[in-house]
């Protein structure tokens, strides 16, 4: 027999058994002991009984008197809680940048409102709106700057 005929026979067996159901029960399959997980003991959280409000408010709650030997649930919840620092303030914009943003969004907004309201638009109004959009875009791109930031110091790392 050639290797090709062996592959053909294996392929015929695969195709013939494609729609067959599994006859073996999963209980018959051996399960390796290395795959078994150790049983973990169940954890029980005991809450102290709630008394009258203000009864023990002056006592510190540090979890030292818990009968389980663990901290309270509030301490566990606060332990993994991350509160990010407040974000830095937004940079102050100069008048030219503000006007560029207004022109960038104002031109198309005017055209959209005028088209939805079916206003008759003169040629100079269309030209002004389109020119404002293009001018605002160009102004923002030109003022963007592509150099390193001024506060990077004398050692700005590798420059390629």
From TrEMBL:
Residues 41-50 have a biased composition (Basic and acidic residues). The chain crosses the membrane at residues 99-117, 123-142. Keywords: Membrane, Transmembrane, Transmembrane helix. This is DUF308 domain-containing protein. It comes from the Bacteria. Residues 52-78 have a biased composition (Acidic residues). Residues 1-89 are annotated as: Disordered.
């Amino acid at each position: 027999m050639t290797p090709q005929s062996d592959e053909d026979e294996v392929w015929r067996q695969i195709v013939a058994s494609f729609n067959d159901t599994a006859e073996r029960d999963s209980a018959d399959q051996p399960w390796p002991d290395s795959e078994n997980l150790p049983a973990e003991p169940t954890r029980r959280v005991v809450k102290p009984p709630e008394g009258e409000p203000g009864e023990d408010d002056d006592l510190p709650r540090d979890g030292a008197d818990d009968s389980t030997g663990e901290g309270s649930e509030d301490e566990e919840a606060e332990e993994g809680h991350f509160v990010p620092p407040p974000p830095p303030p937004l940079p102050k914009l100069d008048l030219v940048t503000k006007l560029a943003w207004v022109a960038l969004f104002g031109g198309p907004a005017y055209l959209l409102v005028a088209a939805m309201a079916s206003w008759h638009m003169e040629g100079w109004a269309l030209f002004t709106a389109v020119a404002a959009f293009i001018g605002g875009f160009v102004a923002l791109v030109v003022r963007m700057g592509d150099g390193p930031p001024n506060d990077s110091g004398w050692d700005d790392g590798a420059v390629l």
